[in-house]
């Protein structure tokens, strides 16, 4: 009798252990399946996020290209025609100034317009320290002998500027700016009006790559000695 009871007791214990084992095994499988599902879901979210980013990138790139094309086409032929009426009208228009600068770069003479722009900015200075620093920078870049972008000025004009640069005023570059203006108006401007850059604009043609040409002979200021400097053109 005792042997029978011991047998059933051992059988029940084995059965209980087996049930516990299968529960653990089954539960572990569920846990493993749950982890795999989470990993797959995370991978899907990452792929979706990457796809959205790519779409946004292409949309931004398309918008940027569209904006760039719109910027290039904003000059109407009617507006460009007005630039041929006078040099003053050309420089007073932002797009006219940009087109003329682009033309000067093809002739390797962009230092003239850059000097003119620097002088216009300089005359807006208000603080003494700002006046001094900008005057020094303009002198070193455009005026002094062997400057990186030295403009073509007569000896007398350069000498006057050199003597006044230690105590500059808002008008210390007026004479030089006026002379460079005359050079561009009577030399570069006439060629600009015959250039492909300008003709393309007045005829509404798209912008084309510009070819650099050998630098032409620039007039010297001495050739304009009979021309009176008109500082009022800056006002």
TrEMBL record:
SMART domains, alphabetized: RGS
Alphabetic keyword roster: Signal transduction inhibitor
GO process terms (BP): G protein-coupled receptor signaling pathway; negative regulation of signal transduction; regulation of G protein-coupled receptor signaling pathway
Gene Ontology terms for molecular function: GTPase activator activity; GTPase activity
InterPro entries tied to this protein: RGS, RGS_sf, RGS_subdom1/3, RGS_subdomain_2
Domain RGS: 86-202
Entry-linked SUPFAM superfamilies: Regulator of G-protein signaling, RGS (SSF48097)
Cellular-component GO terms for this entry: cytoplasm
Domain of life where this protein originates: Eukaryota
Bilayer-crossing regions: none
Protein name, per record: Regulator of G protein signaling 18
């Amino acid at each position: 009798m005792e042997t029978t009871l011991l047998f059933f007791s051992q059988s029940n214990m084995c059965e209980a252990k087996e049930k516990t084992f299968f529960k653990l095994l089954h539960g572990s499988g569920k846990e493993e399946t749950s982890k795999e599902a989470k990993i797959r879901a995370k991978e899907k979210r990452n792929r979706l996020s990457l796809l959205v980013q790519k779409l946004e990138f292409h949309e931004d790139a398309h918008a940027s290209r569209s904006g760039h094309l719109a910027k290039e086409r904003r000059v109407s032929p009617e507006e460009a025609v007005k630039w041929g009426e006078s040099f003053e009208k050309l420089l007073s228009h932002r797009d006219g100034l940009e087109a003329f600068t682009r033309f000067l770069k093809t002739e390797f003479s962009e230092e003239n317009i850059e000097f003119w722009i620097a002088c216009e900015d300089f005359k807006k200075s208000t603080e003494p320290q700002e006046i001094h620093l900008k005057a020094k920078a303009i002198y070193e870049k455009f005026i002094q002998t062997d400057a990186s972008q030295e403009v073509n000025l007569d000896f007398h004009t350069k000498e006057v500027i050199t003597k006044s640069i230690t105590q500059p005023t808002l008008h210390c570059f007026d004479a030089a700016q006026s002379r460079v203006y005359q050079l561009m108006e009577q030399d570069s401007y006439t060629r600009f009006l015959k250039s492909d850059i300008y003709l393309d604009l007045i005829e509404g043609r798209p912008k084309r790559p510009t070819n650099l040409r050998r630098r032409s002979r620039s007039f010297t200021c001495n050739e304009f000695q009979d021309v009176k400097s008109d500082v009022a053109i800056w006002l």
